[in-house]
Each structure stands twice: as C-alpha cells, then as structure tokens.
Amino acid sequence: ISKEKKKYEQKTDIMCDKCGSPMIIKYGKYGKFLACSAFPKCKNVKSLDENEKIVEEETDEKCPKCGGRILLKNGKFGKFYACENYPKCKFTKPFTIGIKCPQCGGELIERKGKQNKTYYTCSNYPTCKFITNKKPVALKCPDCGAESMFEKPSRRKVKTLVCEKCGKELVS
Fold first, then answer.
1. 28-49 confidence digits (pLDDT tens)
2. Contact between 63 and 85 (Cβ < 8 Å)
3. For the whole model, what pTM was predicted?
C-alpha cells in the first residue's frame, strides 16, 4: 500500500457500536476497513467490501466462551465466525458451506490461499486431510450415491462435474 493511502483517513457518519465515537475509513494490507476514531482506547474494526459496505453479518448464535453475539467476518483467508467481543474473547470458528466432506462426513470450508485462489477443505482437519480446488455442488452422484459432486476447473464454457468417490463425470 502506498504511503498516500496509509495517511488517508476518511471520516464517516457511522458511530462505533462499542463506545459511540465516530468511525473512520482506513486502508490496510487487505483493503479498506472501518476503525474507531477512539483507537487505542477502543479497538473496534469492521471489514468493508469494494463498495464501502460493511461485510460483517450478525448470526443467531451466542459465543460459547463469553455469551456475546457471533458475527460472520471476512478475513485474509476467507469468511469465518468470530465473537463480537474480540480482542477480549478470541473465539472463532470456520465458515462452512453446507456440503459434507466426501471422506469423513465433516463439513466443507471455503478458504482463500496466499495467491487469493479459492480451495475447499474439511472442518475436521487435521484428522481428515481432504482438500480440493474444485467447487463442491450439492448434487448426488447417479452411480455411487455420493452426497456431492465437484465442478472441474475449466476455461471452456462447458461445466464438468466429477464425483470424488467413483470418478464419474457429468458434462452440462
């Protein structure tokens, strides 16, 4: 990030939900974010997307450690759930995509690698070491009945789905 962007801070009308101070837009290593103007007393931050909209979403869940609300946040390696009371409470859990792991039956997690490439891994890591760069699709395999199939990366407009268990390919 250039020195000009690091110095640039934009005031907003958004108030900090923790201390009531105005929030400011800052530039960081991974793009824009909202920070409390009362820093370092208040360390409240919120992720922003390209359109300067807040990325965090509230969930119905409560933190098992402190009882705070669980928020869906966007981080360096993709989406994850975290406690609203961070940094006092450091509870986090991975964001699952609702598709089961073909090896162990755990949930699949969408992650971003160092070069911003998307990959999918099992929530039961390190006991299950399943990992793929193919996008999972909630479609049963017609041959072996596996719960999901995977979209094979292709530069062509034709989509090919592959079953991880039996290798069956479906072209659409």
1. 876 788 888 988 888 888 877 7
2. yes
3. 0.64
